[in-house]
Every structure is written in C-alpha cells, then in structure tokens.
Amino acid sequence: MSMQPVLDLTISAAPQVYDWLRDAILRGELAPGSRLSEGEIGKQIGVSRQPVREAFIRLTSEGLAEVRPQRGTFISRISLSAVLSARLIREAVESDLIRMVCDRADDALLARLDREIEMQRAAIDRDDIEEFVRLDDRFHFLLASAAEQEGVWSVLEGLKSHMNRLRHITARAFDARRLTDQHAAIVEGLRQRDADAAEQAMRLHLRELLADLPEVASSRPELFTK
Question: Could you tell me which residue ranges the HTH gntR-type domain spans (predicted)?
C-alpha cells in the first residue's frame, strides 16, 4: 500500500491497524482478492503480528476479509446483495430525514450546503475522486445532523461498507457531476420548502447506483460476488 499509518504508541495498535486497513479496502487501494499477510503488514508498519491479527478478525466479521483454509486471509469481493440492501435502507431512512430537514432549513444551512456542492465540483475538476467521495459523505452527514439524527447516520455507516467500496469505483468510472447536480436538486427542494420535491430528489439520487451497478458488475466481474 502506498500510504502508511502514523501510529499513536500511547494507545492500542490493533484499532489503528484496523482503521488503516479498512480505509484502504473502502478506497479500493486493497483490491478484492488481494492476500493479506500478518507478518508483512506487521513488518511494514512496525508492530507485532497480534494487533494485525486482531484487525483481520474485525475485517472478517464485517465481511471485508475472508479466511481461506490452508491459503490465508484475503480481501473479500464486493457483495452485490449487501450493496443493494444498504442502498434500500439508505433510501428509506434519508427520505424521512430530508423531510425533517425541510422544516428547519434556514439560510445558514442552505448556504453551507451550497458551499459543499461547490467544493464537490472543485474536487471533480481536479479529478480528486477520493476527496469527492469524502465530501459526498459529508453532505449526507450534514443533512442527518440538521435533522438532529447523527446517531442514525452512524448506524448507516456501519451498514454500507460494501456500498462505499462500489462508490469509489463508480465515481471514477462515470461522470460524478451527475451526483452534484442531484445534490443541488435536493438543496433546491429545501430552499423552496417543498418537502415532496426534496424527498423525490433524494430518492432519485440514491437510486443512481441502480443505473450504474449492472454495467460496473459486468465489466469488472472479478470484483463482485452475489
């Protein structure tokens, strides 16, 4: 991996190794099917095998890694069923959240959301896909926060790891400007205090994945599993 974690030696290493590896998996730096070696990773970052082993166990429990008997630990392929389930849950939850936000969307919030969209477009212009995906997540978190439902967003984060992996692929493969235009439509619904329009824009936005998924899965079948 190109990036190396800066470990805080005053706290447990295992959670830090886990966070580093999980981030690399979600960003696609560790590709599906890649083999993970406790010894090699431990040597690379200067820790013993034990914290690396603990990180592997957590990744396996999340479905991001898998143990193959007699062969080792490997990065799991992206689960299409997990992606579709997470998308369905997100649509149900975030459609309700946006209606809640519509009742409290003041000028300060609208201005903040407009700035976020400007930053997303700037990231796309720089071809900085990782930054765009980070800003995309922050946009949705800001909406959950505006609804005073940060805890709900935390629950969603725990459900959408496979979806996040796919987002990094589709953001590179397709025109991410469509997504920023959809964000702008959501904000316009809020600006007009039109809860129905804001909800419809959110639903259309979260269904965008359904349009991209078949092409991505057929062009890169080695990355996916049912």
Answer: 11-78
DSSP code of 50?
H
Helix then strand then coil, in percent of the chain rounded to 5, is 70, 5, 25
State which residues form the domain around 148.
Answer: 79-225
Do 53 and 125 share a domain, yes or no?
A: no
pLDDT digits (tens, 9 = 90+) for 160-205: 888 888 888 777 767 889 999 999 999 999 999 999 999 999 999 9
One domain for residues 202 and 187: yes
Matching residue, tokens 């990782």: 130
173's CB contacts (< 8 A; 6+ apart) are 212, 216
**What is the rounded distance in angstroms from the CA atom of residue 106 to the CA atom of residue 99?**
14
Q: Same domain for 133 and 219?
A: yes
Structure tokens at 91: 């649509």
* C-alpha torsion sign, points 208, 212, 214, 220: negative
First to last CA, the chain: 27
Is 5 a member of any domain? no
DSSP 27: T
The band of 56, judged by pLDDT with boundaries at 50, 70 and 90, is: very high
